[in-house]
Amino acid sequence: MRAVCEGDYHGHVAVDTATKLDARTLRADFPIFEQEFHGKPLAFLDSAASSQKPRQMLEAMNRFYETSYANVHRGVYELAERATEGLEHARERTRAFLNAPSTREIIFVRNATEAINLVAYAWGLWNLKAGDLVVVTELEHHSNFVPWQYIAGKTGAELRLLPLDDHGELDLSGLDAIAREGNVRVVATNLVSNSLGTINRLDKLVPWAHEQGAIFVCDAAQAAPHMKLDVQALGVDFLAVSGHKMCGPSGVGVLWGKAELLQKMEPFMTGGHMISSVRTDKTTWGELPHKFEAGTAPMAEAVGLGAAIDYLEAIGLENIAAHEHELTEYALGKLSELPGITLYGPPADRRAGIVSFNLEGIHPHDVAQILDLSGVAIRAGHHCCQPLMQKLGVAATNRASFYLYTIPEEIDQLVEGLYAARKVFA
Amino acid sequence: MYREVILDHYKNPHGHGTIEDPDAEADGQNPLCGDEVSIYVAFGEDGETIDEVKFSGRGCAISQAATSMLMDMATGRTATDVATMDKDELLEEIGIPLTPVRLKCAMLGLTTLKVALHKAKGTPLPEGLAGFGELELK
In the A/B pair of chains, how many CB contacts fall below 8 A? Predict the structure, then answer.
């Protein structure tokens, strides 16, 4: 795997669509870029960890707090109604964004991690048993790995890992063998890898999961910022999204699930708002989506997420994807010229705007620290993907990631910084 | 921040290796980045003086250089002395300002060495050892 792209990347972008996105203009929407770091303009190449925030989204949250804020779903006064409208409008925007059949299936949570934990606990804990198999992949973020490992351990079910091939893509050749080993009940994978950027082909995996009688849980945290999502076309049963990776605020995420599954599930968290009636001897659960939204909702955050969706859709998800592919190809080309570089992952047309690499003899921490002095922000570490790092045979990698506001000059700044790092450690 | 002495220690670490049948040993891991270090100690005839101390593992320049410096600093001192060494003593030796994240890199070796010594002596680990409770230690 390590040798695949080592220093000689020759991939080409299959997308011909002319980029209609003007990153330079969009950049002005993001106040963060008005600052300098270490006397240099900020080259923010860590959007896969969390994206920066456009003024439009910040203003929508601010407006909600200043003009429409009260607790939702309870008060009878006009202000409370206005707050409820704000939250429910955001739910409708999210439904349309995911092309979900109903807003009853849109559950606001804290982030994709919480969304997956909700499914693992409220479905997995009650439906898994000894002899059952939960299939995840070597490419998973810990958010879609640890909950399944934990719940499998609690129920006696066993975890199986789909391996990666030499191109950083899922190897599906072992599916039949897995099916013979036990009762496959859950298949959980991401749509876009946060570590390698791989866009996973779910078109084979989803029908296979359903043939086994399994539910399919899709971690779309890294896909939602990058590509148009359609839960009905994907055919999955559950899908998890984090607001903060897609120009929304931190503290809000979404679980979408098929209503017929959600209805049969036990609650995840209990308390206020999620009830139908509470008696001293028995409590009954509320209707969807409220059954899964215990406590006061992240109201302003949901409003912010709605505004972020407006912002992304005005630009066009196809344009964002095309822009990221173009930057990725540019970055892979430039980086492959660096002596001693190892590039991980598939060719540019098979991945989102994420490039993971290592420089020979320089630990990623040191690379990231030296880059910081040139105003370049990248991620150094295991990216919450320790099983993947084990597969790659490294403790950590450097990861540069791009978004709609990324310009080629930032990638140039990165490459210059990497030459400087080589010099320090020569 | 990558002053010459740090780079020297990183490229030519002192006390890098292992000791067979050590009198004290421990493994440490920084869960933030997955860096690992193992430390081995051999005591002198008095069972107290650190005769030899070595480390193995992988990590960034800061963690490797700090551990390398620590090997020099610990050799010849008593186990009790090193087990209670103030972290500032090592930080002075490193001699560069460190951000909170990099401080954890720098402390990986010292914290692991202290665990090895406390284990060997059967003394209880001080609460929040060196203030870096989140390092994973065995």
Answer: 46
Number of residues that this document lists for chain A: 426
Among the listed residues A282, A246, A287, the one whose alpha carbon sits nearest the alpha carbon of residue A112: A246
Report the helix count and the strand count for chain B, using DSSP H and E.
Answer: 5, 4
Is it the case that residue B127 has pLDDT exceeding 70? no
Catalytic residue selected from A5, A218, A247, A384: A384
Shortest Cα–Cα distance, A305 to chain B (Å): 29
Interface with A, mutate which of B2, B37, B62, B103 (most A CBs under 10 A) = B2
For range A167-191, the mean pLDDT: 95
Are residues B2 and A424, on separate chains, in Cβ contact within 8 Å?
yes
Which DSSP symbol is given to A199?
B
CA-closest candidate to residue B60, choices A424, A376, A362: A362
Residue B129 has pLDDT above 90, yes or no: no
Better-predicted residue by pLDDT, A382 or B125: A382
Cβ contact (<8 Å) for A395 and B58?
Answer: yes
H helices present in A269-363, as ranges: 299-315, 317-335
Looking at the complex, does the CB of residue B90 fall below 8 Å from at least one CB of chain A?
no
Strands of the sheet with B136-137, listed across from one edge: B50-58, B35-43, B24-30, B136-137
Question: Which residue in this structure is represented by tokens 């080993």?
Answer: A181
Q: What is the pLDDT of residue A95?
A: 98
- ipTM of this complex prediction, to 2 decimal places: 0.71
Q: How confident is the model at residue B48 (pLDDT cuts 50, 70, 90)?
A: very high
Give the closest-approach CA distance of A108 to chain B in angstroms: 29
The two structure tokens encoding residue A19: 């980029």
